[in-house]
Design goal:
With 291 residues, this protein is of the alpha+beta class. Helices cover 44% and strands 13% of the residues. The protein is globular and about 50 Å long.
Length: 291
């Protein structure tokens, strides 16, 4: 039996709701240190992970062949289409007035604390505290997930999230602020088309969580096609399931201004004075660092 058939047999029993729970998480979050869980399968043994990884790779090859996307030229076209799609998604987010205000405040924070750009955990908390001072419901969001079948390896990640309460008490929008977004999608020996896609990604992402989920899926697919063009396997930490868990896995929300296990306390927010050098102003919804 082919790898594609085996992978299909494994995933067939899952309905759409069960699949959604693999990366789903509730958005009702307001208190410091609150935990939010997503349903996951029990952690399998190492042999199960290896088997799942190989099955998924076989499935990818078979699916591309079935869909007529097996040639290098067709993979290039799909990556180009992905670049256009991601650009359109990021451009359309500029129609969100709250997102624009949030991005403006994040830009000001990045400029104010530019001297901390090599201390990411500290910088992240400085930006979070700055946003809270301006009235945003911002917090450090820590995701952590365990290994499961299908090649998903354990991992953890940190970013800032901002929850906007809407008029209805039961409705809210969740915005993701990632200060190191584009680098999360770097891969080995990328094609020129994939490098172009990376170039168009914002180094600092500010946007709705639902938009981010779509963007991550598109970029993960483009990364897989780029690696396959060079006859390279997609590593587990660049697969869509792993990447989705970075921002949508089980998470803990905290407003603690100090990084966990911090042995030296950084200066208070109101005392830090960074020279305003090294960061340009935000242009077209992006932040760039001069090197």
């Amino acid at each position: 039996m082919s790898g594609f058939a085996r992978a299909k047999r494994v995933t067939d029993p899952l309905d759409d709701k069960a699949k959604a729970r693999l990366i789903g998480c509730q958005l009702r979050c307001s208190s410091s240190g609150s935990e939010h869980s997503a349903d996951h399968d029990d952690s399998p043994c190492l042999s199960g992970l290896v088997h799942g990884f190989l099955e998924e790779e076989d499935s990818d090859f078979a699916q591309e062949s079935t869909n007529g996307h097996g040639s290098d030229s067709e993979r290039v076209d799909l990556v180009i289409d992905c670049t256009d799609f991601v650009e359109d998604m990021i451009r359309s987010s500029s129609n969100d007035s709250y997102r624009n205000l949030l991005f403006f405040h994040v830009s000001k924070a990045m400029e104010r604390f530019s001297c901390l750009r090599n201390q990411r955990p500290v910088l992240r908390r400085k930006v979070m505290s700055f946003l809270r001072e301006l009235g945003h419901n911002a917090a450090i969001c820590k995701t952590k997930w365990e290994s499961s079948g299908g090649g998903l390896t354990a991992g953890s990640y940190e970013f800032i999230d901002v929850v906007l309460q809407l008029k209805s008490p039961s409705l809210q929008n969740r915005y993701v602020v990632d200060l190191d977004f584009a680098s999360q999608f770097e891969i080995a020996r990328p094609t020129s088309q994939y490098l172009k896609l990376l170039h168009h990604l914002p180094r600092v992402f500010v946007g709705k969580s639902e938009d981010l989920k779509t963007i991550v899926k598109s970029i993960s697919d483009a990364a897989r096609r780029s690696l396959k063009s060079g006859e390279l396997y997609l590593p587990p930490w660049r697969k869509n399931r792993y990447m989705q868990n970075k921002w949508f896995g089980p998470y803990r929300r905290t407003v603690n201004p100090l990084p966990t296990n911090s042995f030296t306390s950084p200066p208070p927010v109101n005392v830090v004075k960074c020279r305003r050098l090294g960061f340009d102003a935000a242009v077209n919804g992006r932040l760039f660092v001069r090197t």
